[in-house]
Amino acid sequence: MPLQGDLNWRYIPAIATTGALQMAIDTWLWHHSDRPCLRFYTWEPAAISLGYHQRQFPASWRSLGWQGQPLSLVRRPTGGRAVLHQGDLTYSIVVWGLGRSRHHLYRQLCQFLLKGWEALGYSLAFGHAALSAYGEQPVNCFATATAADITLLSGEKIIGSAQGWRGDRVLQHGSILLQPNRDLWQQVFGCAPHSLALPPPERVQDALLSAFAEQWHVTLTPEPLTHAEWQDVKRIATLVAGQTL
């Protein structure tokens, strides 16, 4: 089933950079992109992202480090709970004109994730907790699987997604938990992550790119950020980094 509207999407090649810059890129695309766009990225150095409305988190997070660098805290422009970005791959979609049902759009946009993982030999399913239950749950996004999240059939949550809306413009991004470090997870969340042997990020990204184009019958045109776009992004990143957490 094709998406409505523009079938020529902008694909922004993978970027590995700080959490503040990644959130600034997503924010700029959400506010200003003139075409629907898809991108994948990783966080360097590792970071913890907080949901837009999340105010409670352990004070110890402010002093954590990883591989000789501080573990930075950054606020996402989307909802949900805290995500540790280490050993994960993040996807990001900006689109508009697809209606106003949050639940329906989650289901619609996540189909490529199910399809891509199926091509890799894994059967996935949506979580079962109600979206409205988020307010009652722990700080860790991966501690529960709502209808916006994706799990293996055995129950392990491997993809947590969140949305932001501006009119009918939607930013949906999500963390795909691939190779989490057990010791760091224990420091941050006081529990162990999954210990599954999942494919490396590059292989997952390739499968998801193919699945997205096939699922939605769109052309993904590679187009890095321009110099002017980077200048705008860096200004937003300064604001993101300066937010009170």
From TrEMBL:
One of its GO terms (molecular function) is ligase activity. Keywords: Ligase. InterPro entries: aa-tRNA-synth_II/BPL/LPL (IPR045864), BPL_LPL_catalytic (IPR004143), Octanoyltrans_LipM/LipL (IPR050664). CDD domains: LplA (cd16443). It holds the Pfam family LplA-B_cat. It comes from Parathermosynechococcus lividus PCC 6715. Residues 32-220 form the BPL/LPL catalytic domain. It comes from the Bacteria. This is Biotin--protein ligase.
